[in-house]
Design a protein that fits this description.
Layout: H1 5-14, E1 19-21, E2 28-31, H2 36-46, E3 56-57, H3 61-67, H4 72-81, E4 86-91, E5 107-111, H5 116-122, E6 127-131, H6 143-150, E7 156-157, E8 170-173, E9 180-183, H7 189-195, E10 203-204
Parallel strand pairs: 1-7, 3-5, 4-8, 9-10
Antiparallel strand pairs: 1-2, 2-6, 3-6, 4-5, 8-9
Helix pairs in contact: 1-5
Length: 208
C-alpha cells in the first residue's frame, strides 16, 4: 500500500522526526511539541538559540485552549484573526507544562494557520513549528532551498510547486500584563489595537 506525502509527514512528526510544511505565512520546520528530542532537533537544524521559544501550530481554537490559558483578550484576537497569521503568547496549561520549547517555560505561542495542507497535518495533533531557515537568515521559499538548508535532517518535505513568498506571523504577547507586540507581520499593530480597546496604546517590544 502506497503512503501519501501527507501520511508520511504525519507519521514522521508523530515519531518525533522533523518535517517541513507550507503555512499561510512561510514554510515551517517542526515536530511534535511533547518530544524533547524532537524539539531539540529543530533547534539544532535551525542553529537557533535556545532562549528563543518554538511556537506551536494547532488545527483549531479548541486545540489551542488545551495548551494555553485564554482570557477575554485572547478570545477576541483568536475570533477575529484565526485561522490566520497571528501567534498569541499565553500562559501554558498543565497539558503543555512539560513541553521543551526553549525560552520561557511558563508561556506558549499558539496559532491556527490558514492553509489546507498545514491543517491536514495538524489534524493529527499540534506541532512545534518555526520558520524554515537557519537562524538569522530569511525563510526558504522553494523546495530546492529547503533541501539545501536542511538536507537529511528533515524526514519529510511537503512542498508547493510555486515559491512561498509570505511574511512571518504577527506575534502578540498577552501573557505578561499589557499587550505587547513582539513582531509585526501582515496583521498590524493598529488592527490588533482595535480588537483590544481596553488596552490603550499597544506596547511594542521593539521600541524598548
Amino acid at each position: 500500500m502506497t503512503t501519501s506525502p501527507l501520511e508520511a509527514a504525519v507519521a514522521a512528526a508523530r515519531r518525533g522526526a522533523l518535517i517541513v510544511l507550507p503555512t499561510d505565512t512561510v514554510y515551517g520546520v517542526g515536530t511534535r511539541p511533547d518530544d524533547p528530542a524532537g524539539t531539540a532537533a529543530v533547534f539544532a537544524a535551525k542553529e537557533r538559540p535556545a532562549d528563543l521559544t518554538l511556537p506551536v501550530l494547532v488545527a483549531s481554537v479548541e486545540e489551542a485552549r488545551r495548551l494555553a490559558v485564554f482570557d477575554e483578550r485572547a478570545d477576541a484576537v483568536a475570533a477575529a484573526c484565526w485561522p490566520g497569521p497571528v501567534t498569541i503568547v499565553l500562559p501554558r496549561t498543565q497539558v503543555a507544562a512539560g513541553f521543551d520549547l526553549g525560552g520561557d517555560p511558563a508561556t506558549i505561542g499558539v496559532r491556527v494557520p490558514d492553509h489546507p495542507l498545514a491543517l491536514a497535518v495538524l489534524a493529527s495533533g499540534p506541532l512545534a513549528v518555526t520558520s524554515a531557515n537557519r537562524s538569522g537568515e530569511p525563510p526558504a521559499t522553494t523546495c530546492d532551498q529547503l533541501l539545501a538548508t536542511f538536507g537529511d535532517a528533515v524526514a519529510v518535505y511537503l512542498c508547493e510547486e510555486e515559491a512561498l513568498e509570505g511574511r512571518s506571523s504577527t506575534v502578540l504577547d498577552l501573557a505578561h500584563g499589557p499587550a505587547r507586540l513582539l513582531r509585526e507581520g501582515d496583521v498590524t499593530a493598529a488592527a490588533l489595537a482595535r480588537l483590544l480597546p481596553g488596552e490603550g496604546p499597544l506596547l511594542d517590544s521593539r521600541s524598548s
